[in-house]
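Sequence design from tokenized structure. All designs in this work follow the same two-part layout: the structure record, then the generated sequence. An example of the structure record is given first.
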């Protein structure tokens, strides 16, 4: 690999690191001149609008952007979507540059760049799934706590405050934010709907609707929450039974899907001449591209079916 290409990779990497650090600082603190020349005090905490504050996009590009931002937010990561995107680009440049530099092969550099993007994405998707499962596990306890508190004669606001102080998991953190919003004067309806928007579970949507309706129309909230708790627990049992029943199919899908890429990487690293014809001939490059598209399409279809079952 030429010294010019190495210099370009190093320069772009350093630039991305600087931009990511600057955007992280901007997201935390905002200082300088505002609109119309108004001066904004230094080190003032500033909350940037997120996908939770906007309506769903209709275009494919907008849906992809919102899906990526929602993935980062729901994973509980401290990164913003823009900063995490820059981190992906940095990982792609570093891994691709290292493999391409030591092997002196641009194709390996491209493969390393794809790995550098894929690994952080898989990790943050795993973090999101783990966090959502924690929400499901904690929700019956939260419903029981709210039901017992309201049955004892306390208000719903006090029940939310009790959940915020007693529950230590990620769902307790979301209720603490809801409690702080109520203390700061945000209306009850907006605070509860904001909670439901951050915790995208159908059970939380039902809970938010129940609390808002009860706030306006009245009714026996504790009995409603008791029945809802039983339904949530039944749904969790059914969900675990579904995972157990489809476990073998999901594992076999991952094994079959990984055989092709791993075999390709093995031949590329160990027996490169066996694949050289695929890179030299136009038909071989077309078949490789078609194989990648079919692999991605099949995985997307399988994961879509699994998500619809959930």
């Amino acid at each position: 690999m030429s010294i010019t290409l190495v210099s370009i990779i190093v320069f772009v990497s350093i630039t991305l690191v600087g931009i990511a650090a600057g955007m992280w600082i901007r997201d935390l603190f905002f200082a300088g001149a505002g609109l119309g020349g108004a001066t904004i005090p230094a080190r003032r905490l500033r909350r940037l609008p997120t996908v939770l504050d906007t309506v769903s996009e209709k275009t494919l590009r907008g849906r992809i952007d919102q899906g990526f931002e929602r993935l980062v937010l729901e994973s509980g990561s401290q990164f913003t979507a823009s900063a995490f995107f820059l981190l992906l680009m940095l990982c792609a440049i570093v891994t691709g540059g290292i493999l391409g530099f030591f092997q002196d092969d641009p194709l390996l550099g491209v493969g390393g760049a794809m790995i550098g993007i894929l690994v952080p994405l898989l990790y943050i998707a795993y973090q999101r799934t783990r966090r959502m499962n924690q929400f499901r596990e904690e929700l019956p306890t939260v419903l029981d706590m709210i039901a017992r508190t309201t049955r004892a004669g306390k208000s719903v606001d006090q029940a939310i405050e009790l959940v915020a102080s007693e529950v230590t998991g990620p769902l307790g953190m979301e209720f603490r934010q809801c409690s702080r919003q109520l203390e700061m004067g945000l209306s009850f309806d907006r605070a509860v709907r904001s909670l439901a928007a951050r915790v995208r579970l159908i059970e939380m949507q039902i809970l938010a609707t129940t609390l808002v309706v009860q706030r306006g129309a009245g009714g026996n909230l504790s009995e409603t929450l008791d029945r809802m708790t039983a339904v949530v627990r039944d749904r969790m049992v059914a969900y675990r039974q579904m995972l157990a029943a489809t476990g073998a199919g999901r594992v076999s899908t991952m094994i079959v899907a990984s055989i092709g890429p791993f075999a390709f990487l093995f031949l590329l690293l160990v027996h490169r001449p066996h694949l050289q014809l695929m890179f030299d001939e136009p038909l071989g490059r077309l078949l490789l591209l078609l194989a990648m598209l079919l692999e991605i399409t099949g995985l997307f279809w399988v994961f879509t079916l699994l998500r619809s079952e959930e």
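The two ends are 48 Å apart (CA to CA). We note this feature because it recurs in several other targets discussed in the main text.
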